[in-house]
Every structure is written in C-alpha cells, then in structure tokens.
Amino acid sequence: MIEIPADMELVYKRPESLTLAHTHYCPGCTHGIIHRLIAEVLDELGVRERTIGIAPVGCSVLAYYYFNVDMAEAAHGRAPAMATGLKRVSPDKVVFTYQGDGDLAAIGTNEIIHAANRGELFTTIFVNNAIYGMTGGQMAPTTLPGQVSTSSPQGRDVRIAGYPLHVAEMIGGLAGAAYITRQAVLDVRGIRRTRKAIKTAFRTQIEGLGFSLVEIISTCPTNWHMGPLEALKWAGENMVPYYPLGDTKVTDQVRALMEEK
Amino acid sequence: MAKELWEGNAAIAEAAIRAGVEAYFGYPITPQTEVLEHFSHRMLEEGRVFLQAESELASINMVYGAACAGARVMTSSSSPGISLMQEGLSYIACSEVPVVIGNIMRGGPGLGNIAPSQGDYLQAVKTTGHGDFHMIVLAPGNIQEAIDLIVLAFDLADKYRTIAMILADGSLGQMMEPAEMPPMRPVRPASERAAWALTGAKGRQPNIITSLYLVEEEMEQVNLRLQAKLKEIAANEVRWKEYETDDAEVLLVAFGTVGRICQTVVREARRKGLRVGLLRPITVWPFPSARLAELSRQVRAMLAVEMSAGQMVEDVRLAVEGRCPVHFYGRMGGIIPLPDEILPQVERL
User: Fold this and answer.
1) Could you tell me the CATH number of the domain that includes residue A40?
2) Interface touch A111/B54, C-beta < 8 Å
3) Given A233, B161, B284, B327, which residue has the most CB atoms within 10 angstroms?
4) Predicted structure pTM score
C-alpha cells in the first residue's frame, strides 16, 4: 500500500472489487470499462463480500479472474439458470450474470426470458457489441442489417438471417422485470449514465424488487476491423439509432428508489 | 418407522427430503413427473426450495448453480430430458460440485414412449457427456432400495464431490409397494457450507468454480485428478447383490427391475434342478467387474438380461474376458421380460 501524505486526499483508485490481474481484452475493448463500473458499484454498495458472479462463454469467459468476488463459469447461455439456482439457495447474497450478445440473445434466450419473467432477484449485465468476439467475428443476434461479419460476408441479409433482437425491449415487456435499461459506454456521459444504471440495477436486486438488466452498447474494434475511436464513432452512429438508449421497464418501486437521494 | 405404501417416484422425492435436500429443480416428463409433483408440495411444507424450470437444460443449470453455492440439491427426469441435461452434467463433473440426479428411464430412441426401459445404461455409465468422466450410477431393484440409494447418493456425491445418479426404469417409478422411510435428517445450515463453495469472499480470497482450463498442462492435471478420484470410487464403492451363487453353474446378470424378475427365474430354475444364480449390480458404475471375473471361473455360462438391445452385457463381457460364454436376452420398446420367457433361455445353456 502506498502511504497517502496527510495533506493529500485519495481521489481515484482501483476498486476493491477488481483483482490486480491484467485483463486479456483487446486494446480499445469496452469490457474493461464495464468491469470497472460494476466493481465501483459493488464497492459503493458495500456488498463485495457477499457478491457472487456468473461468467459467460465468449470474450468475458475469464471475467472470474478480474472480479474480486466469488464466481462461477457457466455453460454458453446458461448463466441465468445458474444464477437462479444459486440465488434461490443463497437469498442473502448479491448475484449477477455478465453476458454477451451471443451468450444471452442467441443460445441463452430461453434462460434469460424465463429468469426475467420469474422476477429472479439477480442482476444481468448484458454487453451488446453486435458480434461474436471470441470466435473471431461471426454474426450475432444483434448484428445490424447489412453489417459485415465472417459469417455474413455480404452483410447481414435479414431475408436470410432475420432481424436483430432488441433485448432491452423484449425483457422490458415481461411482468417479472423490475428495472430494464439500455445504456452505452461510447463517451464519458454514457459511461456515467451506465454506472448509475448498474447501481440502480443492483439496488433493485438488493431491495428485492424484481429482475434487473442493463444492456450496454459496446464496441469490438478487433472484429469490426476499426481503430478504438473509429469503433466508438461507428457504434454511436449505427448501433445507437437501431438500439435506442433509455429505460424499457421501471416499476414504481424502482422509480421511488431512483428518486431517493 | 413403520412401512407405508409408497409409489416409486414419490418415494424417491420423499427420501431426498429426508436426506436433507435443500433445493429441487425439475421439468415434467412421463414417467417421472410424480417426483416433481411430490417435491412441489413437500418442499413448500418444509420451507425449502422447489422450482419448476422452463426446460431440463435450465433444471440442470439451476442445480449446477445451487451446488456451486454448496447446497444439497437434486433434479430428476426421464430419458429424453436426461439427454438435454448432458451438457450440464459434463460441466458439473469437471467443476466437481456434488449433485444428485434421477433418471426414470422410458422407451427410446427419440421420443420413444413412456413405458419402462433400460436403454439409457450406456448413456449413464459411459457416454454421459463430452470429455472424460463418469458418474456414480445406482440402480435400485425395488422401492425400498430406491429410498435407501437416494440417501446414499447424496452422501457419495458430497464425499467425492461428484454426480450420483439413480437409474431406474418407468415401472419402478410408477408402481407402489410397502417401504420404510428413513428418519428426517436436519438440513445443513447455510453457515456450514463447504469451504470451496460460493458463499461470498468474506475474509478470504474469492472462490472460483470453473471447468475452463486453457493451458494444456493444467487441463491434463485436472483430468488426472478426476481420474484418480474415479479410481478411488471404483475401488471403494462397488455394490451388488447375489442370489444362489454358491453352487451356480449358470449365472444371470441383471440390474433394476429385470434383476428382481430374475430372482423369480432363479427360484423356478432351482425348482427344476438347475443350478442357476444371479448377480444384480447395485452400482452399474462402478461395475462389479472383479466379482464377475471371479464367478466366470466358477460358472459354465452367463446370461445378461436387460430391457434394451444389450448394453450392460458389454460390461459383463469386459469383466469376464472370454473365460466363459456370455449370452444375452433382452426386450425393447417398453416390454418387460417375464420369467416364463427368460427361463427357456436359461434352460438352453
């Protein structure tokens, strides 16, 4: 530990809820930002020592090395089912799943819909970067129409591949969902709003108000074949219009929570 | 406790409750749905967790999550549902969390039918999921044994941090007979969950439960550890029952319901003066291979009888190593072989 001189104040540090491990994420990837936001919120809420995370299959498969909390690794798409089992036998714990678009919106659609509809008391952080990153840039359920990927080389043709899935809207329509929102980590303002949303989501869980999910518009410079800044710009210009930001479900109880100072 | 009339499926659920199961996750499928139904009201009464999942895929992953938390947990299904659970079983095996699962087998392949079968033997003992692993597989021959083996299954799963499966056929799940329940064991308090469990990293380093090992040498070490554990289980946990084997010249080998039917065959054969015995495996993994090898030096021939095209017979032949002929008789499609059709098969030998 570094001694802080008496006349100085510590204003920025690594959250206790992150480990000291270096992440394996590509340069410019936004997973690092999102990890940090979750960790800051867990610290702020003082729940690190009773938090249990479930990692997905995909780029964030190794998330359990980066969060300084108990964690399990799920099979592809099954994190919401695992979180359900875990939370039901550990009601005093804070449980979250961290999932990408392939994991949550393709192979795991069944599990997320039913967990949300049951109003399971865990929080899902859903990272939407419109591509399969780990396997090398294939078309995801959220890949935009016309977007080129290694499995849609001519661009996504909706006549063949169907339409991108609007997860926040879909889950927001379910009775068990208490707080569902879509945010983006493409600029400072968006990052601050995302942090606030993550905090509201965890508070929704802790207060026992129902299921909470934060969809986060994210980037994949590597598989989009763009520089980090170009990727942020592309996401802002193409993804955000297709996936409008904002809340898709806020129950009255959650609204009251959000209005608390 | 006195004997009561129990239906097999309900007995399995009640025995698990007596054994201190904290949570059950399941999905309806004939002929095991009564397991789920019994849990649905009894777990509420006991203040424990019951949840009807959206699929067997979800059930097994809910079980996985609850087991990661260190809770005593189980699920059950029937053949097609178990196929759906195979992904989860492989993850659970590698993650080394204790889980109990019941398979009340029905006719297959495909949607098959809802009649009794033993056609999932190979799936249970050899092809449970991708990668190198086995489950402990217990095959009850009657309802009392199903009750006793459920309790044992939880203890073995905990002891070895492994999966223990109760492998029974639809007739055992559906029939009723008198049986005695064990006394109610207290549920393990959440504060006494295992040190490896995910209970929150309070005053310790975080616990991680994973089946991902990207470095080849690490993955090999995990496999070596799993294999060492399986070897220990194989050395210590083989169980079987023998009937009239002392002077047997012909040995019947059959498990579960067919094992029970073959007891009648032995009795009738003896009445006709034939020296026939029976070995009924209780654990089909680990398999009583060593005892069968001994008996292969004593008997003239063996006859494996199954409700399948001949699955366990492969393990009998592996154990016997050609020392005596191993014959097979089986019925499929949900048909239970009866003593009067098995006896002529014995008389021919």
Assistant:
1) 3.40.50.970
2) yes
3) B284
4) 0.97
